What does this fold into?
Amino acid sequence: MFLMIGPILREQDGYAYDSWIPAQGVRRSYPYRRIEDAYYARRHAIEEASGEDRPMPIVCHTSDEFALKMADVQSLVVPA
It folds into this structure.
């Protein structure tokens, strides 16, 4: 399973990050009140996603990087 994790972003409700799986689309994380909590949750998601038999997730540090890599992968995925 291919997974990409985006940067921490500030929103109305707090701090959150996006993750993307081609088959499921973009998903927003729970909004955290403190940025430290959002970073902790993101780090945990990265560690959980990089299990023994899974490929390492792609971790993006900017919104632009997240959007560009998502577009690159979408262009490679052939619809069934």
